[in-house]
Each structure stands twice: as structure tokens, then as C-alpha cells.
Amino acid sequence: MQPTAFLQALHATVRQLRATVETELTPLPDAVLNFKPRPDSWSVLECLEHLNRYCRYYHPALTKALAKPGASADDVRYSWLGRKSLDIVRPDNGQQHKTVKHMNPAGSQLSRAVLTEFLGHQAELLHLLTAARATDLNRRAVPVEFFRLLKLRTGETLEFVVRHEERHLQQAQRVAQLAQASAPVLAV
């Protein structure tokens, strides 16, 4: 895919994710936001805190990668690691995957500040996607969070962040629906 179309598609997805959080999740009562269908599953706030933790790592790494100028006229390409990473976080991939311990928010004391932080990260991500127009998306420049000797291409990383957010936002929506269906009292 051409870089311009690639970035426009990611930009549209992030705008939609942000709108979903603002319209569907932010209005929910705290009881719904903290509801867990099972003790070993995540609440809505834990899903978003997980994403916040990834943003805290990947946004500065992307900022650094995007500081190197050099637009690419080539289609966005994928390495083996990039394809594998994207396959794991694809929203339609129903397989569950364990997350690394420091990215797992289970058992954290969370408040609505998680929503505010997430929305701030989305504004920052939109800025990063705009800045990405002036860089080579095929440059290997972003260290993988859990093993920093490995690097993803800039474009792969941008897509990874967006697809990962799509996946966990869908998870958060499912949890919110379960909370409202299983205990109508929570929604009041």
C-alpha cells in the first residue's frame, strides 16, 4: 500500500477509536468500567490501561524514529517479525495471548483517569501519523518493547499500535456489554 493511503487509513481508524471511547465508554458508570466477567479477565479500565502502558513505550520510540527525515515513495513493506506481530494483534484473531507482566494491568487500582490518558494518547497518535508523512516508513527504527534488540519498521510499528488498540477496544466493548447485560443495576 502506498504510504499516503496507509497513513490515511490508520488516521481514520484512530479517529474512530477515539470517538468510540468518547461516546460509548466515557459515559459509563464506574461500576461498569470496573466490572470483570471473570476474576482472571480484564475490566474496561484494565483493557485501556494495558493500551496506555504500550503507548507510554511506543509513542516516544515512534517520535524518535519519525525525527529522521526521508519520505518513502515505495509501498509499505513488512518484515517477518512485523507480519507475525500484526497477526497476533489483529482484531479478528480470536486467540488469546499472554501479555508480559509489566504490561498486564490486572489487579491495578484504576480510575476514570485511564480514559483521559487514553484519549490523550489518541491525540498524540494522530499527531505521529501526520508526522509520519515526512519519513521512510520502511526504515527499521523502532525497538520491540519486550526485546529491544529486535526492531520493527516504522510503518509496521504504527500499524501494530493501531491494530493492538482496535483489538483491546473491542474487548473493552464486549466487557461493557456483559456488565450491562449481567447486572442492569451496574448501568444505573
Automatic annotation (TrEMBL):
It comes from the Bacteria. Pfam families: DinB_2. SUPFAM superfamilies: DinB/YfiT-like putative metalloenzymes (SSF109854). Residues 15-172 form the DinB-like domain. This is DinB family protein. It comes from Hymenobacter edaphi.
